Amino acid sequence: MSVRVVARIRPLLGDKEMEKDVIVTAASTEEGRAPTIVKIPNPKNEAEEFSFAFNSVYDRDTTQEQLFTAEVAPHLKALFQGLDVTIFAYGVTGTGKTHTMRGGLKLAERGVIPRLLSNVFRRGKKIAKDSDGETTVSVTLSYYEIYNDKVFDLLEAPETRTPSGLRLSEKDGKTIVMGLSERACMDLKDFEQLYIEANNNRVTAATKLNAHSSRSHAILRVKVTQTTGDMVRESTVSAIDLAGSEDNRRTDNDKTRLVESAAINKSLFVLSQCINAISNGDKRIPYRESKMTRILSLGQNNGITIMILNLAPMRSYHLDTLSSLNVSSRAKRIEVREIENEVVFKMAPPPSRSISNLSGTRQALRPLANAHNVTTGLAAAKEKAAEKEKDKPVKAFSVYKEPSNKPLIGSITTSANITAPRRISSMSAPLAKKRPSDGMVLATDARPSKLARPTTHVALSSRPTPQPAGLTPEQIEEMIERKVAERLAALSAATAPAPPATESDHSHSKDISEEVSRRLEALERRIDGEQDARSDGLRLLLQARQAKQRGDDQAALEFYESALPYFPGQAKLLGKIERLKAKLSGVSEPVVGARPVKRVLKKREPEPSDDESYHEADADEEDEGYMSRPRKAAARRPLKQKVFVDEEEQGPPTPRTEQLLAVVNSRDIGQIKALHGVGAKKARDLVEFLEDEGREIQSLGQLRMVPGMGGRAVERALEGMIA
Ligand SMILES: Nc1ncnc2c1ncn2[C@@H]1O[C@H](COP(=O)(O)OP(=O)(O)OP(=O)(O)O)[C@@H](O)[C@H]1O
């Protein structure tokens, strides 16, 4: 089925919002039918009205209970039948997303999330009772936020956060948050206690547009495990409260808020790009350009997805509202496979986890799959799943195609019966799109969702890989370069008003061959997958070094310790930690035993652990001032690349070192990209890093430490400089 998209218009608030300023209204296709249309005037000509069609539209007087009963409660049965459910709130800041998802404390004001949990517990108890205790149902929660594109566990105390947040990883095509905690939850009281406490950890702040604005995307995952004998069925409901897009010309945001806002707007921009790409039938969906879209995996997850578009009815939100109407009405065209999670056979979990007998104690930390359940059955079950996986298409989404006789562009209804589509050229919001979307058609697809019905799906079949006729490898490379440059430009424009999306944009994206898409995606996956952990770890190492240079050994120790999980068992890192501990505890001589074995020998040995991460982490040792044992330069010789760079570093910087550093510090992506061995991604990461750190790179050693650079890249860049 398609993603179900419903719109909710919030009521007017306070004295400042007045009826005369209301411009957004709900309408029905036929008298007496429930509303499915949102109407809003054309900002350029108020006599014209745009109409956007949704699966359902909820007007200003809709209560929390009505929304829940109509949109969420019907999917509970499916959840217990093994389908995953995702509900997310989307909209401009201050339009009621948190109100819809979380709501107030009073019973009538409770939002989707507490009502959902209440129903899950009730149904779980009923199932246990009806089966005379043969089936046990347990509920576990995880709750995390994406703040400034970093993932933080909301069930953990903020002091325990590492600056780089939790890492995302991918397994079997699913996005996994590494190290996320899970808590068992026995009843509603248990949940409320956890939820209220966790929400205090969420980053919110007052902005001019909303006194309690969410500055992060919050994701609550509720895993329901039903166990009958050795049969286990897991399904997950994810409730996501996205942060709202905001037009910073209206917010008066200070620097911190602006940084947050840029991250929010960028991720929402990427989401809109994903929605456009899927609805256009593009081969390449830019999920990986933001953590939020990676986690949301819109259109990739099986099960049921409901998008709640929150709207403010007033004129002051006019352009922003149009923008979000445009994006969300396209989301309707995304199809998701409605497939139940498989029952797996395994040892029944200990009875203490069931609803009827939950201890409420914390579970051991372990990776958790997002938007999907992780099944951990026996080998047979795994084999079966693997077998199935082989038959699966690469992407688990498919695109609903409009019947050919249905116009793709929207109609505008006006009192003067104007039918020609109009362009919205003055949109200022980041998500603004000029091309009227199909959602503007007065469509009649307000059909109720079908539940728990494993459907056949029309999915993109396994991607063919033949090289397009007539394209040479060089041309392919050129296309990849061009596409990457376009994406970079799009990213840098993410916080600025969006350029108009034209028909030629679409046809242009179409002319990117499948081969190019495939290679670009593979490249991205490799870079993200392999480098995510490494860059996070290296960032921590760099922070440790900076702390050490400042003389803040305590902070340095903490950073080194935080970096340890990224370089498990790394002898040199362990050595640093031990020496710092010794130093801090007043032991004057470093512990000799902690001195790591000679690096060169280790590096030259083709040991399995001798991976890139190891090299990079090793490089961190360059300026250890407190080591008792002098470094043996000769011992380092065998590492060719290292020697080369070391020589450059001896004495005052050479002209080419200066030249290289000047290019790097220019923060000009074009110049940096042109360096030998530095591609578009590295250039972008480097500039982002410099912006984040607000500092300049002063030596090759420092440059090597920049996440994603590494010794070899620096060497190649240096080689390419004209001395
Ligand atoms: N349906 C509603 N009924 C009553 N009050 C509402 C409703 N929707 C929103 N509000 C109120 O509007 C204000 C803004 O809502 P909320 O904080 O939920 O917006 P938001 O979209 O989550 O904003 P942000 O993206 O900035 O976090 C709050 O005071 C909230 O209580």
Layout: helices, strands, pairs:
Layout (H helix, E strand, L loop, with lengths): L3 E6 L15 E3 L9 E6 L2 E9 L2 E3 L5 H9 L3 H5 L4 E7 L5 H5 L10 H19 L4 E13 L2 E4 L14 E4 L2 E4 L5 E3 L2 H14 L2 E2 L7 E2 L2 E12 L2 E11 L6 H4 L3 H26 L10 H6 L7 E8 L6 H14 L2 E3 L7 E2 L22 E2 L9 H13 L5 E3 L12 E3 L58 H20 L10 H8 L3 H37 L2 H11 L7 H14 L14 H6 L7 H8 L13 H4 L3 H10 L5 H12 L2 H5 L6 H14 L6 H6 L4 H10 L4
Parallel strand pairs: 1-5, 1-16, 6-15, 6-16
Antiparallel strand pairs: 2-3, 3-4, 4-21, 7-8, 7-11, 7-14, 9-10, 10-19, 12-13, 14-15, 15-18, 17-20
Helix pairs in contact: 7-9, 11-13, 13-14, 13-17, 14-15, 19-24
The structure holds adenosine-5'-triphosphate.
InterPro entries: Kinesin-like_fam (IPR027640), Kinesin_motor_dom (IPR001752), Kinesin_motor_dom_sf (IPR036961), P-loop_NTPase (IPR027417), RuvA_2-like (IPR010994)
Keywords: ATP-binding, Microtubule, Motor protein, Nucleotide-binding
Family: Belongs to the TRAFAC class myosin-kinesin ATPase superfamily. Kinesin family.
